[in-house]
Amino acid sequence: MLAVLPLLAVLSLPLRSGAAAASHHNCNAPLVSSLPHSSFQSSSQSSVGYAAHNAKLNRRDGAGGWSPMVTDQEPWLQVDLREQMEVTAVSTQGRYDSWDWVSGFLLLYSDSGRAWKQYRQEDGVGRIVGNVNSEAVVQSKLSHPVRTRFLRFVPLDWNPSGWMGLRVEVYGCSYKSYVADFDGRSSLLYRFNQKSMSTVKDVISLRFKSHQTEGVLLHGEGQRGDYITLELHRGRLDLYLNLDDGRVRLGSRRVAVTVGSLLDDQHWHSVHMERFNRQVNLTVDAQTSSFQTRGDGHSLDVDYELSFGGIPLPGKPGTFLRRNFHGCMENLYYNGINVVDLAKRRKPQIHSGNVTFSCSQPQLVSCTFLSSSSSFLSLPPPPPASGGFSARFQLRTWNPDGLLLSLQLHPGPQTLELQVSGGRLLLGLHGSGRHRSEATTGHRVSDGLWHSVRLDTRNLHISLTVDGEPSSNIELWEPVESRGNFFFGGCPSMNCHAQIPSFQGCMQLIFINGQPMNLSLVQQGLLGNYNELQLDTCSIKDRCLPNLCEHSARCSQTWTSFSCDCSGTGYSGATCHNSIYESSCEAYKLSGSSSGFYFIDPDGSGPLGPTQVYCNMTEKKVWTVLSHNSSAPVTVQSSSLQKPHVMRLNYSASAEQLRAIVSGSEQCQQEVVYSCRKSRLFNTRDGSPLSWWLDRDGERRSYWGGFLPGVQQCSCSLEENCVDMNYFCNCDADTDAWANDTGVLSYKDHLPVSQVVVGDTNRTGSMAVYSVGPLRCYGDKSIWNAASFYQESSYLYFPTLQAELASDISFYFKTSAPSGVFLENQGLKDFIRVELSSPSAVTFSFDVGNGPAVLAVKSHLPLNDRQWHYVRAERNVKEASLQVDQLPLRFLQAPADGHLRLRLSSQLFVGGTASQQRGFLGSRMTPGVSSGCPGYCSGSSSLCHNRGRCLEKSNGYVCDCSQSAYGGTTCNQEVSVSFDRESSVTYTFQEPFSVMQNRSSQASSVSTDSRAREDVAFSFVTSQRPAMLLTVSTFSQQYIAVILARNGSLQIWYHLQTDRSPDVFSPALNNLADGRLHRIRIHRVGKNLYIQVSPESCMLKYTLSSDAELILIRSLTLGKVTRMENLNEEVLQAASKGFIGCLSSVQFNHVAPLKAALTNRGSSLITIRGPLVQSNCGALAESTSHTLQGETHTITQKLPKFMEIVQKNIKNAHDVFKNCLKLQNFVQNCLEHGRN
């Protein structure tokens, strides 16, 4: 069997994980076995023998465990540990000798037994795996310890052939707790022994809990401007810190760092801050942020005191007014000092203002509405004290829409509905017929914070108040009263007036007619009714913390999902993982581009980001050129070793990007020219350098040519043509005549030059003139590194793939084998694998803890045909995708609350598996693997151009140009046609289809990541204006039009939503109807539109008003349009004028309509009107240019001469080379390493 992988590259951008849980070697004692019966409670019990106190591990008391009643809607088992304990693990067991066990459960914890919080693992998963039989004990170690008194086990799944049965044990230990209670007016003052405290290192740790979103936890400041403040703001923790920065005024403080979210949930949160000099690490729960402080100082100078819980003197100079903290703090340490313990013992350095030393238990009990389609809480209203009705409650949610309250009114029929609409509250009163009254609030409530809502009837109006702001009112014609139950969060379908989604979020403090609603009675079935409701807890989760959007993209969320806004990042995809730019100039050349300025992304989907370079493609080699700030020659005089001339070179790319470009290139060089008159490079007596340059790492270098490092010589010495052979450099002859030492630096590890130092121009008559050329690199080491596998037992293996949160894999392969594994990496349970599963199918499978997920792409033609085929697989926290050649892209949506992290531990196997079975056949080679690949199509010499596909033949190769807009034997022959006013070419698509590839059936409707995309490229020459160049129309009345306006400027029209005005963009305001050849490229991804006018210009980015896809494309027309009903007047005028001139190499996605018109004139897909003559646009443009030159000498002398007759290449973002060539060298480095 012969199987070949020419390229395999894997890039991963795992995000930083939170701090690991502390190791507790002795915190694993059983805590439940000795508890009394009174420590156990449950929602219900089947009978006395199934009571909660029988649920101790390995016990056979009663019926051998706990089981709830069959009618229990929300079953739970609760354990009271009698005091605060640190819990590190739990164990479960089924009911003894039965068919009753729990296979999955949630774990809730609480200090009071009233307000509960759900335990979640590191990646946010709440479900804990339970039992598979009644006797085996399953222990689940908690990824982070929980300090709590009460635990509640909530069964999710159980034995389908039996019922729920549970026995439990909890493991952990006691811990010492020092608690202080702050009432919002109190504080603790820690006073120093001296006037001022100056520290270069600070360590502050504490735990806190609160139901308030605002409050100062810590504050200190000094007279010279230093300050430190730690405060809650909008449920997050802000740290203000300044060290001796006189530019910052205390009245205008800026947040140095913000950490955490939803910290007002009445549960404990841990804070740990470490500062050493200017370096600060701030950790809240499991999230850590590191940063450098402002200012020039390294010490924090605080005067007199530190205050905890607030700022005691708001009028103190320099302070700013903030709310004091209202809640509890525990184990508060400042630089090793237990502040709460000192306060309890009334030590003189602590002043405690109104602070108590026990934490009052909160009484705020929440409920969570889980479903957007079926959740509701129905409550009977108590009689009002007077006429009318009232309701008030607090809510928190992320969803912009949802029904909050619905009730029937008397006299009827009237329905009052309060909903969240577009993130704001909307109150609607529906009467008979179409009568409707509305009132809205301008306050956004879908921000994840608690908001207070009040609804009242008084004086013939219904008033709506949010957070105490001025009310909005609905006027009434007559007094009204409520009739029937109040429905919160939603309602049964027969009671709903309108189809509004149910509320997903939390509510608490529900009052009806002034009376509080007891949710405990609801849970016991003694009050009202409910559906899809979780009581005693608010299960809100911040899905944007940590931000799983890559490359600094903005994260937004709903209750069940998050989405990423990739605008302005240079990346696309569900998590902004994929770069929209090529990785190198070589990649642009292979995708059909010509010389010009381009953005390249040297590490593809990695963290570096794109940078602009010039790509010189006029030579056989493709050169990447990076300029710097000193391109002109520099004259130096009066410099010495004591006061040398220093020039720092700043490049158009960052140091990290430069390093990536250089390391990924085959060769780099930089020319240095040094002209001298009595200015030496080396001292003639001892050979020490008088001038030198610094490399990219800032190291001094004194060689001035292509020599290896350490050889202090110039190029003339290598070439044996120095003016004086007694010296190694021309300038060292030290003559009064001008001399020159020019060299090309080519040692990659030292490039580029970062600084030039000249130190010998201080003598009479001394002078030097030097210049440093741009950095120039050619070759892309990631292109066509081939590996050949000759045996099924052959493979390559590398270190473990680092792909916890995101990874992408792309490669080409060719084989005659019917199946084989391309790549595999395994963990304890997780794995990732890409394989040829059958002669016509490629499969991408993985498991991150949610069960195996499989994506497969099947081809109607065999894939084991010994021709190259392209594969790209990607997996991130939102979805997975698989692409094979030009077949439809397959997607699989990730579960909303599933495991996120792919945890791998074994080596990465390429071309085989760990078991060496079904091998396709970092890093070592096994027998049967060799570098390179036999065949004509394996090199990087681009035998086929412009997206042409190289096909191997027994005695050579042929180029398949069917996917290219060019023709000829190597797909480099321009396809051009001359049009007159009546000419047109219409390409009718064979069947209505969407440009956007269909998603998998698991795709979520809430995802905002649009797959809509178009890629258009063409060249034209004309002197006509206005003119119609190209139109695309759909069966749904959408269109795209590219026209020249009356003034000759280019206009691109996108009409994606028929109920809105079209988007119009003018990327070129100058007159393009100038008889010259112009090349247009248009690329759209969702709302982002990229346009390039001529290869020399930059790609311009625009934003569309919609990311809608083109639905059911009807046709594409070049030239005159005879029939389109919905065109704008300006477009219609251009359409009627048609096009007079030459069109060349037209490409729309994977269709080349102009080429199809010339080669398939009899096809039913092609309609030709008017005369159509094959032409040569480049020659026509050159002829026009000569004519203009003869008429207007003074103008054309300033115009650039055309360097190419035909623009040979075409850019298409769907080209199979693009994604492959983005990736870094992978196989080649390992093969080289394997030889060592």
UniProtKB/TrEMBL annotation:
Membrane-topology annotation of the record: Single-pass type I membrane protein
Domain of life, source organism: Eukaryota
Segments forming domain F5/8 type C: 27-173
Record domain Laminin G: where: 179-359, 366-538, 785-959, 995-1177
Pfam families assigned: F5_F8_type_C, Laminin_G_2
InterPro entries on file: ConA-like_dom_sf (IPR013320), EGF (IPR000742), FA58C (IPR000421), Fibrinogen-like_C (IPR036056), Fibrinogen_a/b/g_C_dom (IPR002181), Galactose-bd-like_sf (IPR008979), Laminin_G (IPR001791), Neurexin-related_CASP (IPR050372)
PROSITE patterns noted in UniProt: EGF_3 (PS50026), FA58C_1 (PS01285), FA58C_2 (PS01286), FA58C_3 (PS50022), FIBRINOGEN_C_2 (PS51406), LAM_G_DOMAIN (PS50025)
GO CC terms of this entry: membrane
Domain called Fibrinogen C-terminal: residue spans: 576-628
NCBIfam families: GGGWT_bact
Name of this protein: Contactin associated protein-like 5a
Organism, scientific name: Amphiprion ocellaris
